[in-house]
């Protein structure tokens, strides 16, 4: 088995290279060839000695997940279905816009948090993605773009907003984001890498200490009573505690703001009173608000509000002084919009529940 260099931070790669008896700086050269110039093989890395290239070829590789299919939406959004070594599949979405190209990356196979309006939740949870699998998504999209347009800007932004709760896969996600930020790899600035969380307070505090990226928080409700029903983790970390963690996060970073995601659902959280309550709740927090029209999926219990109602909601927040965007829904013709990513999850949680239920029915000991 060859070592996969794709999941290695520069520091780890330097150590690995040094163990082969080469100068650690060679690691930087390898990374530049692979990430910047898209070298398909070690042979192409012509400023490395022939013998080192041969050894690299024998020992190592850059291996991303296998592309099972690519779907292209009429609006340019593209969705990859990626097959992992264990048979699971995950989804990655590319969203081209006028001035940027954003990649929406998954962090877990499925998700263990049961947000009531998210289709990933209906799939259950299988496992965390490893570093290679997270970085591999950026790698694949980056190389696909470079092939089509070698002089284009490639991926300009990455958001950890695909399948999974990134803070529940903390170490792998942080290492992957460090590779995204590294100049020898994807070289993305802090404001161009955004981690989105359902609101795990201890994870936000840990992230603040170890990794410099932008933070997005899935709020979806202005008060605890409603948020408890939509985002059940709120029972553990209620809004006041969550917002305090957000304030600590931005206080550690000059000019930073937290993006609050708020999925608008008809008759649930879209009234003018709720818009005003949201404005009050976020008072004092350096915030941007990202409103997302609810994206339907089979079996969903919610509906997207009428355009006029969503616009009223936006206007109230604008008048209260918040930078607010109503996200244009992208890629919904290929089920690539927020909350529509499902991949193919071998659900461990539910299988275990079924297994336990069966044992109990049969009266067998656990
Ligand atoms: N688990 C992380 C990362 C997922 S980000 C988090 O919760 O932040 C995906 C965003 O889309 C989240 O804000 C999520 O709440 C939202 N979302 C989920 N289902 C949706 C749906 N059906 N329509 C619109 N937005 C949805």
What does this structure look like?
By secondary structure, the chain is an alpha/beta fold. It contains twelve helices and 14 strands. It has helices spanning 10-19, 25-36, 50-59, 119-122, 131-148, 170-181, 201-210, 224-230, 239-251, 272-281, 307-319, 348-362; strands spanning 3-4, 60-61, 66-72, 78-83, 89-96, 101-104, 108-110, 125-128, 157-160, 193-197, 214-218, 258-264, 287-293, 323-326. It has a ten-stranded mixed sheet. A two-stranded parallel ribbon has the order 1-2. A two-stranded antiparallel sheet has the order 7-8. Helix 1 packs across helix 2, helix 5 packs parallel to helix 6 (170-181) and helix 7 runs parallel beside helix 9 (239-251). The longest helix has 18 residues, at 131-148. It starts with a strand and ends with a helix. The model is unreliable at 358-366 (pLDDT under 50).
Q: In terms of topology, how is this protein built?
A:
Layout: E1 3-4, H1 10-19, H2 25-36, H3 50-59, E2 60-61, E3 66-72, E4 78-83, E5 89-96, E6 101-104, E7 108-110, H4 119-122, E8 125-128, H5 131-148, E9 157-160, H6 170-181, E10 193-197, H7 201-210, E11 214-218, H8 224-230, H9 239-251, E12 258-264, H10 272-281, E13 287-293, H11 307-319, E14 323-326, H12 348-362
S-adenosyl-L-homocysteine binds at residues 115, 117-119, 161, 165, 196-198, 218, 261, 263, 292, 294-295, 338-339.
The percentage of residues in β strands lies in: 15-25%
Give the strand order, joined by hyphens, for the main sheet. Answer: 3-4-5-6-9-10-11-12-13-14
Envelope shape: globular
Largest sheet: 10 strands, mixed
What share of the residues lie within helices?
Answer: 25-40%
Give the C-alpha Rg. 22 Å
The total count of strands amounts to 14
Q: How are helices and strands ordered from N to C?
A: EHHHEEEEEEHEHEHEHEHHEHEHEH
């Amino acid at each position: 088995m060859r070592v996969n260099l794709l999941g290695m931070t520069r520091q780890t790669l330097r150590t690995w290279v040094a163990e082969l008896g080469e100068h650690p700086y060679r690691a930087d050269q390898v990374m530049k060839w692979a990430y910047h110039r898209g070298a398909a093989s070690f042979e192409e890395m012509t400023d490395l000695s022939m013998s080192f290239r041969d050894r690299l070829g024998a020992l190592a590789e850059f291996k991303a997940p296998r592309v099972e299919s690519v779907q292209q939406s009429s609006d340019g959004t593209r969705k990859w279905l990626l097959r992992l070594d264990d048979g699971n599949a995950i989804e990655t979405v590319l969203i081209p816009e006028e001035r940027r190209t954003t990649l929406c990356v998954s962090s877990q196979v499925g998700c263990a948090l049961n947000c009531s309006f998210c289709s990933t939740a209906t799939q259950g949870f299988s496992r965390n993605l490893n570093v290679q699998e997270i970085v591999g998504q950026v790698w694949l999209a980056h190389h696909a773009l470079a092939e089509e347009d070698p002089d284009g800007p490639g991926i300009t932004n990455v958001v950890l907003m695909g399948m999974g709760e990134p803070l529940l896969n903390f170490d792998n996600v942080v290492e992957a984001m460090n590779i995204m930020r590294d100049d020898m790899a994807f070289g993305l600035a802090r404001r161009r890498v955004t981690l989105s969380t359902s609101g795990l307070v201890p994870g936000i505090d840990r992230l603040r200490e170890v990794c410099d990226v932008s933070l997005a928080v899935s709020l979806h409700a202005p008060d605890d009573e409603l948020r408890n029903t939509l985002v059940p983790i709120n029972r553990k970390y209620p809004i006041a505690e969550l917002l305090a963690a957000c304030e600590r996060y931005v206080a550690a970073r000059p000019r930073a703001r937290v993006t609050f995601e708020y999925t608008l659902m008809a008759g649930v959280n879209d009234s003018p009173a709720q818009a005003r309550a949201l404005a009050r709740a976020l008072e004092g927090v350096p915030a941007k608000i990202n409103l997302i029209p609810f994206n339907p999926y089979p079996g969903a219990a919610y509906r997207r509000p009428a355009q006029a109602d969503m616009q009223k909601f936006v206007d109230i927040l604008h008048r209260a002084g918040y930078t607010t965007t109503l996200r244009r829904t992208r890629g919904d013709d290929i089920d690539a919009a927020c909350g529509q990513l499902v991949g193919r999850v071998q659900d461990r949680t539910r299988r275990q529940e079924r297994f336990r239920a069966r044992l109990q029915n049969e009266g067998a000991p656990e």
